[in-house]
Design brief:
Chains A, B: It comes from Thalassotalea profundi. Chains A, B: Keywords: DNA-binding, Transcription, Transcription regulation. The structure is a homodimer of 230-residue chains. With 230 residues, chain A is mainly alpha-helical. Helix content of chain A is 72%, strand content 4%. A three-stranded antiparallel beta sheet of chain A has the order 1-3-2. The N terminus of chain A is likely disordered. The structure holds a DNA duplex (30 and 30 nucleotides).
Chain lengths: 230, 230
DNA sequence: TAAGTTGTAATTGTCGACAATTATCGCTTG
DNA sequence: CAAGCGATAATTGTCGACAATTACAACTTA
């Protein structure tokens, strides 16, 4: 099973390995959102020195999974509703632009590959059942292709290197398995069509609407949850 | 003279100070673009240990001013034309969205403040002379206000914490003092009007055109330079 | 001569200890 | 009894040394 992060090169140093372990632990909530990180304790737990742990913490901070204050320490980022919505706003802007650039810059081969990926998704049992797979891995795969297709290193860094982890974290912790699977698949198809036609303007609009729809879906859910829990 | 980076809190640790010094040195080209960074050498030069220097390097990496490879070392990022244009594409997307959000989220007080800042720019001697100030500090001030006005922490982090430094680096190293000062000022004024009218859609469009105009201006310059130098 | 190899030198990664700062708990005092 | 203060404990920041990896150079060999 290949790594699902296209920007992540094979880890060599132990700090890299610790970073990956902690990343998963934070994303999946094993290290709770908002909790303080004790350097001595974690170092002992992982059987490494504090220097190595701090190196790993620096990388976690780079993808905004933890926050550090001088002489105070590190905390896992807190998952808030506003934080989630803020991320979707950024995604709408950046992935919309990435989609426009993809329409301009993707090679014909890349487009063919993406089409075949989508075709495979269409026949996937999971999609037909309308359940988890497509919301999770399949959805991410599609968005990755578009982002990488932009051929804009800055876009790729920000989206795949930073926001990606946060998105996954929120998905895990807020338990988001929306009923948008089939709708999302249709939207993906339209987007690919626009890219294939090299229509950057339309591609951007469609991607923005696609992400905005997700955001609104979340907003509705939150509102519903609030009113029912009170 | 206050710090011009709104996200930058007062530095306390020595690693912070080294970070700031190196940041300036890189941005202004004293540490050349693309050059390799020797940890032992720099540590000796700054009279600090390698650990502290590495802490500073980690922060430089966070704002994409240097790149690190495991077991190989750090290099200052290379200034390329494509890199510059990539940044402008990201800015167009993100600052456009920031502007839309600013129109929705800025307080009335913030808007008043921004208007008065612009009024002050209008009477500034530098602007009337059509020279450097407005392209540099004044322009940055305006864009900062808009970004902060979005009240979106993720947007603020990415734009002020990361892209900002790169933008300044390119401005220094490519020596960009374009003749767009008065035009830019007019565009800024229109943007503020749209924000004041709470017209998010228009605000975004205007900001995107404003940044796209800068990008095209650069593209023209580059093309000109290429054809003249060959 | 050019390519491959091996051994040495230099650089990076990791470690444990010390210094500086912060948090905590108990005490004093109004 | 509450609020402020002070000493102690714990945590973070910094340091220098060692281990592991990489880069370089001289040498061998086809």
């Amino acid at each position: 099973m290949a790594s699902n992060n296209p920007t992540q090169q094979e880890a060599i140093t132990t700090a890299d390995k610790i970073f990956q372990k902690m990343q998963i632990a934070i994303v999946e909530g094993d290290i709770p959102s908002g909790s303080k990180i004790s350097e001595p304790e974690l170092a002992k737990q992982f059987q490494i020195s504090r220097s190595t742990l701090r190196e790993a913490l620096n990388r976690l901070e780079k993808c905004h999974l933890i926050e550090r204050k001088a002489n105070v320490g590190s905390r896992v980022i807190e998952c808030t509703v506003k934080g989630l919505l803020d991320i979707y706003v950024v995604r709408e802007a950046l992935e919309g632009m990435a989609c426009r650039q993809a329409a301009l810059n993707m090679t014909d081969e890349e487009i063919v590959d993406m089409k075949s990926m989508l075709a495979q998704h269409a026949t996937s049992k999971d999609l037909q059942d309308g359940v988890s797979y497509y919301q999770e891995q399949g959805d991410l795969d599609f968005h990755y292709r578009v982002i990488l297709g932009s051929h804009n290193q800055e876009l790729i860094n920000i989206l795949c290197g930073q926001l990606y982890h946060l998105v996954r974290m929120y998905r895990c912790q807020f338990g988001m398995n929306s009923p948008r699977a089939s709708k999302a698949f249709t939207e993906h198809s339209r987007i690919v069509e626009a890219i294939a036609e090299r229509d950057g303007e339309l591609a951007e609009i469609l991607m923005r609407r696609h992400i905005a729809a997700s955001r609104k879906n979340i907003e509705n859910k939150i509102a519903l949850k609030d009113s029912s829990s009170v």
